[in-house]
Amino acid sequence: xxxxxxxxxxxxxGKEPERALKLLKQGNSKSDIMKDIGVTVGINxxxxxxxxxxxxxxxxxxxxxxxxxxxxxxxxxxxxxxxIEINGQDITKLSKKELAQFRRSTISMVFQHFAILPHKTVLxxxxxxxxxxxxxxxxxxxxxxxxxxxxxxxxxxxxxxxKLSGGMQQRVGIARALATDPDIxxxxxxFSALDPLIRKEMQSELLEIxxxxxxxxxxxxxxxxxxLKLGDRIALMKDGEIVQIGTPEEIMMSPATHYVEKFVExxxxxxxxxxxxxxxxxxxxxxxxxxxxxxxxxxxxESGISSVFVLDKQKKLIGIVFAEDALEAVENKExxxxxIIREDVPTALPDTTLRDMYPLxxxxxxxxxxxxxxxxxxxxxxxxxxMAKLAE
Amino acid sequence: xxxxxxPLADWINDAFEVINYHLSPTLRAASRFIGExxxxxxxxxxxxxxxxxxxxxxxxxxxxxNYKIGIFTFMGLLLVYGIGIWDETMSxxxxxxxxxxxxxxxxxxxxxxxxxxxxxERIVRxxxxxxxxxxxxxxLIPAVMFFGMGKVAALVATMIFAMPxxxxxxxxxxxxxxxxxxxxxxxxGSTRWQTLKDVQLPIAMPTIMAGxxxxxxxxxxxxxxxxxxxxxGLGNVVLRSMQSxxxxxxxxxxxxxxxxxxxxxxxxxxxxxxxxKEKQVQ
Lengths: 392, 282
Prior knowledge:
Helix content of chain B: over 70%
Shape of chain B: flat
Oligomer: heterodimer
Low-confidence stretches of chain A: none
Helix content of chain A: 25-40%
Strand content of chain B: under 5%
């Protein structure tokens, strides 16, 4: 169910937005309009939906309109035209009072430079949104404390922000946003001002919080790696328009335009490619107990490989058998594979990223078995295929 | 050559006469009110024996700022008493501080309002420029016309002179508050008043306090000039010394003003420093 539904949103900065809008809708180009009446088109006919509980990343370079877009969602910037439905209500039509109410209860925001009040303690900062709501001191401090505990700031309540590092200040920002228990969290380049290590840490923690609380997050970033890590879906913006919306895989693997392609070409694909995307689904296996060493050996000879995975009837992985062991077993006239199965097999889950599988792929020249949580065999990954996929 | 004259002086004289005539009752009431404030203040300062007052003031300063400034205040006042200008000094303090008080009561709200509306700011700015650049002797005249010779006229002149920095620095302080902080406050559904009260004013406080400091200093310097229209106090000592070419008396009066200025300056400076430290504003 979409919680945010944006339809044909326009934002024009300048003196005659109505006239510019008309010209824009008639199909005149942005640069012409800018030359003619001196306005800037911030958002140009943007439509998208965000589902409840989804983490939606809007990504683009500076000047692409992403900041304007996120500020339209809580009307820090008034859109020129279009509809923004949140929880089924068109928020562009809210009165001043209703808008304040909407901001207090439904939506909250985390800022690039934290926007923490320097004259208030960490606890007072976290309680800020609740204070605006008019909650009593005791209640709001309790809730703020819970939020601070969640972001790992227990023990810092009574410090002033100037004592905190950037990462910790942003935790206060996140705690403040979570404390009001909003449906939607807007994050405006929330981690861009942090240094790379802290940023990664914060990204992981945000994912954890998201898992726990199931908030809808709209996250703005100019960093594609960040977008790919955090986004359930990503909208790529350029010049005030959305160029492509899709899951990280879709954006990476099938860029809609040349622009998107340029954008993603430098990305480390090993972080996007997951086991189920590179595995071979049809692979040579032997099934226990009906097949013995003789069958295993023949299968290996047919496929030109030196080892083979062993499954049970339910397709659950048991282990691996090597050609030399199978040969020995055949010579000894053994009929069961049991004795020669080795159980220390490298395995990966279908959603393991290639990057995390590198350690398994180095060293011993064994294929990796892809299995799900129930150990059901899904496919295998061999080195050659990995190289081929990376080079694509 | 074309004869071209604008009788600006006549117009203004006429206008003032009309205003004076119609406003006379109001002005008299205002005059009485302001006069009572100054007199009350002065009476309080002069009521206890000098030594007791010295200790009270020194303790108050020490408590508001720090003990070093408290000690300096005591020594300074002792000197003032010793050179025989105690009454004049108290009278100047009363005038300068009541002038500052009234200036701030009017100036800071104007500054706050102007910071919220660019239209109001555009109206206020040229008036402030006018007030600040007009030679102070010029508005001694209307002050006397409206309020007669004496302390009230002096206070009004002081107010006109000392108001611009208070208003300006209030506007500046509030406008300076980072846009993101104001945006954050709005994003959480603050009303304008809540944003002002919880975010803008506390963060602007150091700048506003700098305005208060300047306001006090300017009020003090104006009380000297205003001695020409009967402000009394230390200015009067200086004025009399000028009239009689008495360099000794001039030095005594000047010294009193300098001591007062240093005490008030350090006091306000340290109050704002203390406030910042408590609130941990960077």
